[in-house]
Amino acid sequence: MTRKVTLIKGDGIGPEVCEAAKKVVDKSGASIEWEEFDAGTSVLEKYGTPIPEHIIESIKKNKVALKAPVTTPVGKGFRSVNVTLRKSLNLYANIRPIKTYAGVKSRYENVDLVIFRENTEDLYAGIEHMINDEIAESVKIISRKASMNIVKAAFDYAVKNGRKKVTAVHKANIMKLSDGLFLRTAEEVAKDYKDIEFESVIVDAMSMKLVLNPEDYDVLVMPNLYGDILSDMASGLIGGLGLVPGANIGKDAAVFEAAHGSAPDIAGQNKANPTAIILSAVMMLKYLGEDAAADKIEKAVENVLKEGKYLTCDLGGNATTDKFTEAIISKL
Questions:
Q1: Isopropylmalate dehydrogenase-like domain: which residues (predicted)?
Q2: Residue 261: its pLDDT value, please?
Q3: Domains of the chain
Q4: Residue 36: how many CB atoms within 10 A of its CB?
Q5: What is the pLDDT of residues 105-131, one digit of tens each?
Q6: Residues carrying an active site annotation
């Protein structure tokens, strides 16, 4: 059965890497029909928003989307498109696999961990105000329900994928109520998964441990802000954000996206690395039960990276986006 998927082309390098992923998926044998939309700065003037309501309605209808990066202004302007989608669709689990690849320069070997980041609350709830002209206040929200959802998702993933350990990351030594609630909830959920090792680590110590011995970790689960920071930091261990895919999963919808930004400085130059969004498409295909196509693409990406002939500039090569994509397709 052909599955219809919403394709959000984004802005900056978004349309380029999105087209690369689309070509690879189409050549993989997967039964996918795309419903394509422009988003970001290219539609802002027309719709007054970078993510018009008809795109959100398409995702609600199709249940699955593949999304390219969309620019978010710093300190002003419209709210992050990612935050808008996560809130609108209740995409409570952000999942980012962090894995070293042969052929990619890195200080580490054998890193293979997955970060589960709660996606809907914490400081990203967007509850903030000015107390006076000199003081701004932002409210951190941690609920038992959201904490339980993300921790259960992490443990279920560990069981399904043969992972051995789940590590909860927190700052409950200082934020005894909010992070304390997250930690207590994680400890409670862990009791139902006797075959999975469980530990908890304070977030600052976790930062150090990931840099020293990232190969010691398997599945990490944490509130929103820590997940945002540690997943980007962990990407630096394996060669950068250009290699890191991502999924945003809820009960009724899922949006798969590259972890990196829109890189407007190289937009339109055929330089962008499409690996992250192609691997995000792999996650999407597995979610849809298209395992054979997903495995084929994943193996093709690994082979191209290992051979090292067609690496993009961020990986130390000089291949164009098109050449890199063609190399992957040739491996299929």
A1: 4-328
A2: 85
A3: 1-92+244-332 (3.40.718.10), 107-238 (3.40.718.10)
A4: 13
A5: 899 999 999 999 999 999 988 899 999
A6: 124, 171, 204, 228
